[in-house]
Amino acid sequence: MPTEMLNTFSQDDIRALEPALKIGILATVSDEGLPHLTMISTLKASSEFGLVWGQFMEGRSKAYIRSHPQVGWLIMTLDKSLWRGKARFTHTSKSGPDYDFFNNTPLFRYNAYFGVHTVYYMDLVEQTGKQVLPMNEVAFSAIKTLTARSLTRSRAKKGVINPWTRGFLNKLDNLKFLSYIGEDGFPVIIPAIQAQTGDAEHILFSTSVYSGELKAIPVGASVAVLGLALTMEDVLLRGRFEGVRSYAGFHCGSVQVDWVYNSMPPVPGQVYPEVEPQPVRDFGAVD
């Protein structure tokens, strides 16, 4: 991130972050103090000093933000411009102008199955201002990661990352974002589009793009990695950052994954470690 952060949104920022078609990412802190990433497509700047987003499905981040209001956020527009920063959750509402705005957008106005039922408000703490995703550097970094991955012997002892997830994360045109919790308690989000799976237990990413930020992650820190596609598919992984070292001559960071979570509808849930199915014992009242 730039050394000089901004504590307000400009009118140009507000207009740029208004469209419904964009990528919004929210980083929250779990009840165990671990980073959690969620795609929030409705996330936008609401004023010079605030952000707002609408909830239309359930998920862990909505509970986490109430217990731990410090969040990190990222918005990427269709022209690959980025805004990143920190915010603090303040309150929710189930009515009002923002509620009406979200439910009158094309995605929800003509949707017979769900709409926004709760609006979340956050105070802006700081933001980067508009940045441009360095596509050439990202492409070269992805090639370096791919080369390192192909020449690295597997270290996996467990099948943590299943074949579907490996294939999904290894697609070079899918987006990936990484998060860890900074010293101030706010989660940090770093674009890591070059990230790929090294084996069934590790994620690798070249540090040749966003180098300073990636190398600043403390060794041993808990790191979350969110992979997503514009087809609305996504998967969340979490593990321990092993540091940066040379893989076949390329400097790459490595995350040893120990937790995988499906955040896609209709039923978000933990993928690894596997959760034992529980019998249904309460079938509700019978008329």
Summarize the structure.
This protein has 287 residues and is α+β, with helices and mostly antiparallel strands. The chain is built from seven helices and 16 strands. The protein folds into two domains: 11-131, Pnp Oxidase, Chain A (Roll), CATH 2.30.110.10; 134-272, Electron Transport, Fmn-binding Protein, Chain A (Pnp Oxidase, Chain A, Roll).
Describe the protein's architecture and organization.
The protein has 287 residues and is of the alpha+beta class. Helix content is 18%, strand content 40%. The protein contains seven helices and 16 strands. It has helices at residues 11-16, 60-67, 97-103, 106-109, 135-150, 163-169, 211-215; strands at 22-29, 35-39, 44-47, 50-55, 70-77, 81-93, 118-127, 131-132, 175-181, 187-191, 196-199, 202-206, 222-228, 234-247, 250-262, 269-272. The strands form two sheets. Strands 1, 2, 3, 4, 5, 6, 7 and 8 form an eight-stranded antiparallel sheet that branches. Strands 9, 10, 11, 12, 13, 14, 15 and 16 form an eight-stranded antiparallel sheet that branches. The longest helix has 16 residues, at 135-150.
